[in-house]
Amino acid sequence: MALSVSRRIVRSFGSLSALGRCDSSTVISRSSQASDSIARVSVDYLPHAECFGLPKGGLSSLACRRFSSTILTPDSAENAFPSDLLSSKTVLTPDRTIGLYQDLVIPVTNFHNEDKGLMVLAGDVFDVPIRKDIIHRVVLWQLAKRQQGTHSTRTISEVSGTGRKPWPQKKTGRARHGTLRGPQFRGGAIMHGPKPRSHAFKCNKKVRRLGLKIALSARAAEGKLTVFEDLEVPTHKTKNIVNYVKQMEDSKKLLMVDGGPINEKLKLATQNLHYVNVLPSVGLNVYSILQHDTLVMSRDAVNMIVERMHTPINR
Fold this sequence. Notes:
Layout: H1 2-13, H2 16-21, H3 24-44, H4 46-51, H5 58-64, E1 104-109, E2 118-121, H6 123-126, H7 132-146, H8 205-222, E3 225-228, H9 238-247, E4 254-258, H10 264-270, E5 276-280, H11 286-291, E6 294-298, H12 299-310
């Protein structure tokens, strides 16, 4: 039925080339003829329309209705369309693309979950492209630099023992030896053993700074970055921090970063919790961020980190 209706409409309008060459009066006359034909078709197929639950004259009104691209909303026009008939579903927006250096707006709160306004995070610090190779280089540099390197073994000149030749060179049938402090004897020296040294290697400042930016951007993209107005706690009781961590979803290890020296109450409240660590902003590093799945920073800490990232590198 729908196919026959569409064919009659096309016949009434004619070909597209003929429609493009005709004048406005011809278009108006043909459009009126098309509407009349649609009305006649709707009357002819009225029993079929009633079978589909359409009221009388409903098909003709649907056919003659002008379609518009305007989206109807409750605030689009007063009393133009019933608001209860409009869809109340939220419009799904596509996910944000990471690494476009766009400034991020994040809400600011505190331990009492109070609204403390909003804060803009610099895009060149908290929205940089994620590069695993840079993270790998910086983490290796950190682990190598913090290695103590105090391992030591004794050479043949450092082992205690006599320097006398154990037995004559010949006529004993035994192997020739000149000392009992050699590496082949029990309690003897260690040849080519480790000595105290530094395992650190050079990593460029630009790479280290980029690694910290990538780590912060990864936590911000995952939604695991929270900004507090400050890290002030009412008391030094550990239960306050425990109750706050329980309220957080999918949080196993928490890293708190403050702008200045750590508050004494906060230090006492977190020292018995193995899953909560506190750092000043000057000590924030890539390895610590990767070890904790949730990052909580104060407003001062964010400002100091951004200022540190924007400081020119001294050569």
